Amino acid sequence: MTTKNADPTVAAKVQRQADSLVIASGGTLALDAGATYIRGGTPQTASISTAAGASNVSLNTVQLKDGNGDNLTARRVVDIYLADDSHGDTITATTASGAVAAGASGNVLAALVASKMLRVITDATGKFILSITDTAKTHFYIVVALPDGTPIASAQLADASYGA
Fold this sequence. Notes:
The protein is an all-beta fold. Helix content is 2%, strand content 38%. It is built from one helix and eleven strands, in the order αβββββββββββ.
């Protein structure tokens, strides 16, 4: 790390520790043009895995991850919606026949579009389980809208994604 054209006291306020940069109280951080600051604990991506649940139920685990691909270890609020395409360009036109709700991890804060889009809070491990009950076993894509607006889509659900 270098301090170019900096106040000589800056070096005393900045320390490099393992994989982090610590700036003492009163210190500042200036970024060059094009640089990006990512606040620690901010979700940078997510994994979405699917398992068949009870009859006509699909259980979909969303795990938020940091910039290194490690699981977050904190509660975070994200939007989750059902889409008809892998890009998450639009909310699905199809409504599941039953509940679209929280499973065993996390909680629903608000239904933004009934049975199609939820604002959720993860559990303390950055995990949320989305339970979809649908007798038609619709082949939705599950999309997580990260806080920066990036959509992360699951693989398309299949008949086997729902319990028999």
